[in-house]
Amino acid sequence: MSELIEQDISCPYCGESIEVVIEVLDESQEYIEDCQVCCRPITFNIDTAFDGSTSVSVHSENETY
Q: What is the mean pLDDT of residues 2-10?
């Protein structure tokens, strides 16, 4: 079952704080969405733990993690 959450993130390129809506699925996911301010591609990593908690991390297209 999926759920929508609102999350404030900072763009790894321009540093602006933007609010995004994220669809949380039962498994972890990665996707790319453009920054609403500078239009550069932000990579989102959404991890869902066994207890149902969700963590969101973002990085630029060129960063390794």
A: 91
